[in-house]
Design goal:
This protein is mainly α. It contains eight helices and no strands. The protein has one domain (2-194). α4 (58-83) packs across α8. Keywords: Membrane, Transmembrane, Transmembrane helix.
């Protein structure tokens, strides 16, 4: 779910799925989505390892929780500002002669936000005692992350023409919702630190 929500907003990966779908068709967009999702597996594993180390060091975790408040406030502000903007451009990447699967793998590897996003998600879940570092929990977190990422990219590919026509309103609404969600997470984190 977090992976799905985290990937909803227009980004390089999503806009590339949209562009591939418009230029090469839905099958190519699905191959691209599979390539991106494939690279989510090592990213989540690295995030789990890093987060487990951080969670075993309480002082680091406290510092990260406090920094997380600032990050979530900044994200809330960012998404709020993005909600005021107009349409987004779909010219993210040239896709004419590129293999969609390799494009997905390459762009996912280059995506610098994957590991910090999953670490942040794990830390947030751990703060609210909703995550455990046992094998079953980690397996389902990885599976959910892969499926969530694939599904949102699949939807971008499937509804490419509709998204292209309505990106202004869609982007505005999604960014406003994400602004509210990240703001609430910041508030809950502050409350948890003082209770």
């Amino acid at each position: 779910m977090f992976s799905f929500v985290g990937s909803i907003t227009p980004s390089m990966l999503n806009m590339t799925a949209l562009k591939i779908s418009l230029e090469k068709g839905k099958l190519a967009a699905n191959k691209y989505a599979f390539g991106v999702s494939l690279m989510i597996i090592p990213q989540v594993i690295i995030a789990v390892i890093l987060t487990k180390y951080i969670a075993q060091t309480p002082t680091i975790l406290e510092t990260i929780e406090k920094a997380g408040i600032v990050v979530f406030i900044a994200l809330s502000y960012y998404f709020y500002n993005e909600s005021k903007k107009g349409k987004i451009k779909v010219d993210a990447v040239k896709t004419k002669s590129i293999n969609p699967l390799l494009t997905g793998i390459s762009l996912s590897v280059l995506n610098m936000f994957g590991i910090p996003f999953f670490s942040g998600t794990i830390i947030t879940l751990d703060v609210f005692n909703l995550f455990s570092f046992d094998f079953v929990s980690v397996f389902f977190f990885i599976l959910g992350s892969v499926l969530g990422t694939f599904y949102i990219l699949f939807l971008y590919g499937k509804f490419a023409k509709i998204i292209q026509q309505k990106t202004g309103k869609l982007t505005k609404d999604i960014n406003l919702i994400l602004s509210i969600i990240t703001g609430l997470v910041a508030v809950f984190t502050v409350v948890k630190l003082f209770i």
